[in-house]
Amino acid sequence: MPNLLVRFAFVVFALSLLASCSPQQRPDHLSVVQERQVLRVGTLLNPTSYYFDHDQEQGFEFELANEFAQRLDVRLEMVPRFDVNDLFILLRRGQIDLIAAGLDRTATRDALYRFSPAYDVISQKLVFKQGSRSRPRDLQQVTDGEIVVVEGSSHHQYLQSLGESIPTLRWRATRDHDAVELMRMVVSEEIDYTIADSNQLEVQRRAYPDLSIAFTVKQRQQVGWALQQSQDDTLYTAVVEFFGDIRTNGQLAYIKEQHFGHVKQFNYVTTSLFIQAVEDQLPRYRDWFQEYAGPLDWRLLAAIAYQESLWNPRARSPTGVRGMMMLTLPTAKAMGVTSRLDPEQSIRGGARYLERMLRKIPARIPDPDRTWFALAAYNIGFGHLEDARVLTERQGGNPDRWLDVKQRLPLLRQKQFYRQTRYGFARGNEPVTYVGNIRRFYDTLKWLDEQGRL
User: Fold this and answer.
1) Most exposed of 140, 196, 239, 257 (fewest Cβ within 10 Å)?
2) What CATH number does the domain containing 393 carry?
3) Do 60 and 48 contact (CB within 8 A), yes or no?
4) Which member of 308, 344, 386, 430 is catalytic?
5) Across residues 87-96, what is the average pLDDT?
6) How confident is the model at residue 14 (pLDDT cuts 50, 70, 90)?
7) Is 61 an active-site residue?
8) Percent of the chain having pLDDT more than 70?
């Protein structure tokens, strides 16, 4: 019996040693990210996802990913690439945690990766240069040229899926250019057609108004983040909860408005005339915009002047405002302007007046909303802007967000609303259009400047 007890004790001891030497259970993905204290996000370098502006990280996907990283209380590390295929390789190898690059959710991708809830819905358009050829109505009519798409993109997958169903269709995929470059190559007539996502196309048409839509190739494509297929749901669950929360609390709509709220409206004539005016008229006044901008971006001041007067120093409205910055007589006097028709004085006076509006906006409101509020006040008056902010708060909106306030400004035209306000009736739809136009002109000027075209 003693020997049996000894052998039993030895077996228990041996098993305990084996248990202590067995590999520990692998930590879940979310725990790995939190222990690492870094969220690694793959993305594409382009004007809609991720880019640098004066060495500062910018872009819609960057803003979303940064919000998610803050939620996890970790540092964000963006891993940019020019080719979407490279991002999928990094994801499969575990070198990034997820891809945030405006990815269309397709059946092929769904079979390989796990997608977040859709945070946008886009369409895909066949694009050609305005006036270069007759507009085709469907792929059957694309007989006078070749379609070029990015290799590995959803556009590439779609064309592959057609097989030989349209024998006359000519197309090819390339890894030498990204989607934005292909759109620019359409304008320069280096290629005939490309397929573009509607959100990217809207941004590019501000600088290239000759990009023309032939027809919609695919409707209502969901856009989301891509993660590895895995039995470990921890990071995926955190992503799902994140998108649910920011959709509910309005943060998703707010980030969208900051980046794309002003690009939905496109007018070919207006955009073409603006780019022509940049070449013909802006050089005469650029030095004054730069001199008097002060803490403002001179390109913003120039965009305001174009919206006000089309850079016409002798402009005049039926209401009596005059000059480059379209100042009222009382405002001109208050800003020290003796002649509203003198372009230098008008630019100086307009800059000072905008700075005054900026100082009136509550200090707690950050940019860019602070600037959009100041522009609205420049247009409609600070009092009417405050009426709209009060109305926004009464209706449960956020009075410090331009997204919320711009939805209430048009209500100042309706008696049931303006009779509740201090300053009464106002054409509240006008500052909404005004701010949107200036934002488009400003973005175009920034882009042209970056390209060395100013």
Assistant:
1) 140
2) 1.10.530.10
3) yes
4) 308
5) 95
6) very low
7) no
8) 93
